Amino acid sequence: MSTTTSTDAILGWDETLAAYEPVMGLEVHVELGTATKMFCGCPTTFGADPNTQVCPVCLGLPGALPVVNEKGVESAIRIGLALNCEIAPWCRFARKNYFYPDMPKNFQTSQYDEPIAFGGHLDVELEDGTVYRVEIERAHMEEDTGKSLHVGGATGRIHGATHSLVDYNRAGIPLIEIVTKPMFGAGERAPEIARAYVATLRDLLRALDVSDVKMEQGSMRCDVNVSLRPKGTEKLGTRTETKNVNSLRSVERAVRYEMQRHAAVLASGGSIVQETRHWHEDTGLTTAGRIKSDAEDYRYFPEPDLVPVAPTEEAVEALRASLPEPPAQRRKRLQAAYGFSDLEMRDAINAGLLDLIEETVAAGASASAARKWWSGEIARRANGEGVDVPTYAAQLAVTPAQVAELEGLVTSGRLNDAMARQVWEGVLAGEGSPTQVADARGLQLVRDSGALEAAVDAVIAANPDVAQKIREGKVQAVGALIGQVMREMRGQGDAAAAREVIMARLGS
Amino acid sequence: MPDLTRDDVAHLAMLARIDLSDAELDKMVGELAVILESVATVQQAPIGNVEPMSHPMPLVNVTRPDVVRPSLSPQQALAGAPEVDEQRFSVPRILDED
Fold first, then answer.
1. CA–CA distance, A34 with A172 (Å, rounded to integer)
2. By 3-state DSSP, what share of chain B in percent is helix, strand and coil, each rounded to 5?
3. Are residues A50 and A118 in the same domain?
4. Is A249 in CB contact (< 8 Å) with chain B?
5. Residue A376 shares a structural domain with residue A486
6. Does A365 share its domain with A424?
7. What are the residues whose beta carbons fall under 8 Å from the beta carbon of A20, sequence distance 6 or more?
8. What pLDDT score does B98 carry?
9. Angle of helix A367-374 relative to helix A342-350, nearest 10 degrees?
10. Chain B touched by A157 (CB under 8 Å)
11. Alpha carbon of B70: minimum distance to chain A alpha carbons (Å)
């Protein structure tokens, strides 16, 4: 029915934009962070042994009856409210029927024409400050599917596999599917807008604390719909749906690639097939998947085993009152409070440092010091490990309180910057708290003015030329002497105090 | 109701992942048509102002708290599986459509 090919032609980016206008739609699936599945009490722990978190309900055994997870519904409503949606006063679940071994019931419990939330929007700020409003069609409740492992094929992929091994631990985990309305007028910024939308949505969901939104673990997944129409025309082109685009960078690349691939097909007089496409992270290409089923092929009908969900107005308003400060607003507030430049703020956000910085400031450090420590050595190492800083810090059990403690050792005058960096390395190496590391390594600025004066005198005596220049007013030459004094004191000197003593000696 | 065609049956068989021979398709068109005709009798019911319903009881918001309950053991879960490999359900290769 389909062929795998990676030799699709693509049209140049500028030529694509000159001739066509993209229309995009994004579908994001979010796994909720509930303790249990959507319709049964099985746990949802990631990475458990296969088929250890299953029961008659999520295995679809005869006679098993589902019951809706209260927190799943509340999370869905909170997501809807945060996306400025209306909340349905009454809605039902529906069966989406299909035969595929990832769903042992032979249907997925979803919502069809009665989503719990609909008609919202999310404002997305692009890098240059432009705000693009993404209209939200709907957010509905459904359940995740099992995981298939295709074996017997040379590559472990579906093609060439002899059989599939299915683990149903994931089957039944609550999912919220968030669907945008078609996005028009994005033009050349379509890839950037797609990425910014997913990033903004991720931040929002994280702030709502409804999901861990880990794209790399699949708890947030994006399907990218793209179509092109010749510039100046109204009729929508045929779209393709690129599945499982699971990083922000890939969202951007997939939109761009599909635009260029569509353009090449259309420019050569061909037509686009409505199909799903598989995204290949490694090559940055998409390949043909199955021909898209029509909605009627799923033979949706209301789920008879679940009664309708009818949140009262009071319940909805109580959930609305529980919404956190919107992330964009929080950033503006923190940037003003911290005095960060736009660039500093953006770097901190992109590196996921904002929570860490906020907690470090709360623990007593200055904002600039908090930013400095979290974006320095630890960020370099986290990057080397391929994880973000919060994850890496959690792995190392390094806390904002420790960073505040370290900075406290600097501001109290016990450590200079170079020593503090050594202490930080010790903390990252698991040697203990900053104070413990400083004690264990004997790091302490020398306060003994006799030792400092002796070192200064020795350095001046060894550098009469430099000393003379300073006497004659070339104050910038003092740096060379300070460096030598610090070496003389094996790094335990206080550079500021050394400068004072040198200047006093040389009478400038 | 429009008559059931042979193409309809072939399409339904594809959706249900049932491989039907030409002879079986011909036979099923006739048999399903009889069933549909019988079921179509309900369309004569005097529904007047009766609202469609999907559930016999007028209940809403039946939920459970988000509290973990014991799952089956993998041995229990896999007991009914035709084949098991690596503590997973082993199923035939998925057709070359995905």
1. 12
2. 40, 10, 50
3. yes
4. no
5. no
6. yes
7. A228, A229, A230, A231, A259, A262, A263, A266
8. 42
9. 50
10. no
11. 7
Range of the domain at A67: 13-314
Which of A50, A98, A162 lies at the smallest CB-CB distance from B86?
A: A50
Rounded CA separation A34/A71 (Å): 7
Identify the band that residue A496 occupies on the pLDDT scale cut at 50, 70 and 90: confident
How far apart are the C-alpha atoms of A397 and B14, rounded to whole Å?
A: 54
Residues A78-120 pLDDT 10s: 999 999 999 999 999 999 998 888 999 999 999 999 999 999 9
pLDDT for res A2:
40
Checking ipTM against 0.90, whether it exceeds it is: no
Q: What is the pTM of this model?
A: 0.79
Token pair, residue A470, equals: 């300073």
Both structure tokens of A480: 């060379």
Q: Indicate the residue among A314, A348, A381 that finishes a domain.
A: A314
- Check: CB of residue A414 under 8 Å from CB of residue A384: no
Nearest by Cα to A274 from A482, A2, A36: A2
Q: Where are the alpha helices (DSSP H) in A52-140?
A: 70-82
| Facing residue for A73 by CB, picked from B63, B68, B90 | B63
CA neighbor of A54 nearest in space, from A9, A112, A103, A115: A103
The answer on A146 and A32 residing in a single domain is yes
Whole-number Å distance between alpha carbons of A376 and A255? 33
Q: Phi, psi at residue A364, to the nearest 5°? A: 115, -5
